[in-house]
Amino acid sequence: MFDTHCHLNFSRFSGREQDVIDQARKGGVTKIVVPGTDIKTSIKALKLAKQYEHVYAAVGIHPHHVYEQIQNSKLPSTMFRVNKIQNTSVEIKNSLLEIEAFIQHEKVVAVGEVGLDKHYYQETKYIDYTIGPEFINLQKELLIAQIQLAIRHKKSLILHNREAKQEFLEVMEKNWDDCLAFKTVFHCCEADKDLLSFAQEHHIFIGVDGDVTYDLKKQEFIKTIPLDLLVLETDSPYLLPEPLRTQKLFPNEPKNIPLIAQGISEITNTSIKRLIEVTTENAKRLFDLD
């Protein structure tokens, strides 16, 4: 099995990385992709990928952390243009250059997680955090820049979208390149028919997490996803599946992929053996791994 999205680079796992990986392997999870969400976690993801044979990194700036660019820069987001990076703030330019430097390592398999996010987070490190036009515009422009990095360096793409479907699909439509087909995943995809239609049309994988074991809307959604576009992910340390969620056995870990697979198997009436085989092959194709 393959956990296509695990934040082993987050502080929740600090000092426990070896144990988490060992427990995952005992549970049948043989490959893990660790996505970055900013420069710091991208560095940590690559460090873990270098240290552990079957761990791979993705590097990128999560849309929530684009807010840091607003705080650090006095320039309006309109100063940022994808094809004129020299016109952007020093902070954005340096961030993109760092991400691009990381991308070239052989253990970096993707750019991610990147995308758009209009959700109001109750817990955030940013002072005076608000979601306004400047924030969303900067998210869009940084997303476009990172999509172009993936295309230029022939890497896969891990996409995050939360409560921003219309803007997200507009950006994807305008910046899509056929080289991204079967190399892109809608991470923790919202239960939405428009997102699924776009994914089917462009051959984009759909990432499914532990919430499918308790979220009724996700359970109905999973029935509509073609098996050949499905990949499994934990989004550890978040989205703990049942029955562990009820038991409050936090945090979530890659070892819990079998619980997600079992839940999907029961919901879709697909044999667990076939589900595991197909989703594992899908994940290998997504990240171009053997």
Describe this structure in words.
The chain folds into 2 domains: 1-35 and 208-281, Metal-dependent hydrolases (TIM Barrel), CATH 3.20.20.140; 45-154, TIM Barrel, CATH 3.20.20. It is 43% helix and 13% strand. It has helices at residues 17-26, 39-51, 67-72, 90-103, 133-153, 165-175, 193-202, 216-222, 244-247, 257-268, 272-287; strands at residues 2-3, 31-35, 55-59, 108-117, 156-162, 184-186, 205-208, 230-232. Strands 1-2-3-4-5-6-7-8 form an 8-stranded parallel sheet, with helices on both faces. Helix 2 (39-51) packs parallel to helix 4, helix 4 (90-103) packs parallel to helix 5 (133-153) and helix 5 (133-153) packs parallel to helix 6. The two termini are 13 Å apart.
Key words describing this protein structure:
2 domains, alpha/beta, 8 strands, TIM Barrel, 43% helix, 290 residues, 11 helices
In short:
By secondary structure, the protein is of the alpha/beta class. The protein has helices at residues 17-26, 39-51, 67-72, 90-103, 133-153, 165-175, 193-202, 216-222, 244-247, 257-268, 272-287; strands at residues 2-3, 31-35, 55-59, 108-117, 156-162, 184-186, 205-208, 230-232.
What's the helix and strand layout?
Layout lengths: L1 E2 L13 H10 L4 E5 L3 H13 L3 E5 L7 H6 L17 H14 L4 E10 L15 H21 L2 E7 L2 H11 L8 E3 L6 H10 L2 E4 L7 H7 L7 E3 L11 H4 L9 H12 L3 H16 L3
